[in-house]
Amino acid sequence: MQLLVVGAGEMGRWFARESGAGTVAFADRDPETAREAAAAIAGSRAVPLDTDETFDVVCHAVPMSSTPAAIEAHAGKATGAVVDVAGEMRDSVAALESHAESRACASFHPLFSASNAPGNVPSVVVRDGPAIGRLRSALEAAGNEVFETTVEEHDRAMETVQAKAHTAVLAYALAAEEIDPRFQTAFSEPLSELVERLTGDTPEVYAEIQARFDGSTPVADAAAEIAAADAETFVELYEEAGE
User: Fold this and answer.
1) Can you state the angle between helices 203-212 and 165-175, rounded to 10 degrees?
2) Relative to the CA of 75, which of 3, 195, 202, 237 has its CA 20 to 30 Å away?
3) Which of the residues in the chain have pLDDT under 70?
């Protein structure tokens, strides 16, 4: 299987390694990034972003806001299947439906950074085909749990597990004051560790998540409700949270 990965960053390289492809080509708007990716993975090469070559599979591994345009621009280079690892399903699946034409196509979302692989990978299969099956099998063979979902179920879940969770952790980080570590509790210490993990990644990625999924407002509203609660209301909220 010949694979073209559009977007030679962390997730593009992860997909190239896990895909089971026989040969891999990387294309990126920064040619040096494509060359670096090709040098890091044996048997791969860099190609221009506007290459007129065709490949069995084209994978789009670009920021979620850029994915629809990337699919429109590069889906035609695939002879077998078009996929993405965008992290959202509404816009990417719509682009696959519009621009992948009769090709097999699917959207995969690794719920982890490449350094934390393997993990869970929800997928929406728009049109199934042999290449999609091979990719799914390769990802599973690498230790990932690939499961099918719907656009609506996926994006609704991302509002909670990404946008709301990130908002809660960042809000704690911004509100917390520096303390002697010996004061840490069984609750604050894990939160501090989550802050370190979250703020050690690429902020632009999290900005896109916040822009795409509604999470910050509900968390802010809940925090305001807790802050304004009297003792009786607090107990009610506490019990509600545990249900």
Assistant:
1) 120
2) 202
3) none
